[in-house]
Amino acid sequence: MLELTMATVSGADAGVTAGMTMADAPSEPGAVLRVGRDASVCRLVTPEDWLFVSRVHLEFLCGPDGGWQVSWLRGSQADPSAEVRLVVGEYAQAVGYGSAVRLPRGGSGELVVQDRTAPRSVNVGFYHEV
Questions:
Q1: Distance between alpha carbon 47 and the CA centroid of its chain, in Å?
Q2: Which of 20, 24, 79, 120 could disulfide-link 10, Cβ–Cβ 3.0 to 4.6 Å?
Q3: Structural contact between residues 60 and 34, judged by C-beta atoms closer than 8 angstroms
Q4: For the whole prediction, is pTM greater than 0.90?
Q5: Is the pLDDT of residue 73 over 70?
Q6: 29-40: per-residue pLDDT in tens?
Q7: Residue 17 has pLDDT above 70, yes or no
Q8: Rounded CA gap, 67 and 130, in Å?
Q9: For residue 101, which phi and psi values (nearest 5 degrees)?
C-alpha cells in the first residue's frame, strides 16, 4: 500500500496543514496515483491557478515487484516553472524534469514541488507499507 498526503502551502500559510488531502493505492503492479491540476486524471489536485504545477505533474507507479517509483512528468513547457525534490529523513535529492526515482520500501518521506517564482509549494508526503 502507498499512502499519500498533500498540502498546498503559500507564503503566509507556511506550517499550516489545514486542507490536507489524502489518497492511497494497493501495491499491485500497474497501480497509479497522480498529482496535478487536472481533477479528471489526478487523485490529488492542486489549485487550478497554480500554473507552476502541470496538469499531471507527479505520477506514482507500482512496478512488477510491488515497489513504487515517482516520475516528474514533462509538461507542455520545455523548461519547468518548478523544482521537485525528494526528502527522506535528512536525505534530500533533486528529481530531474522528466525523470523517475524509486521510493524506499517500507519507508516514508516527502516530495516538494517548489514554485520558482513565488513562495508556494505542494508538499506530498508518502508512506510505503511493506
A1: 14
A2: 120
A3: yes
A4: yes
A5: yes
A6: 999 999 999 999
A7: no
A8: 9
A9: -135, 135
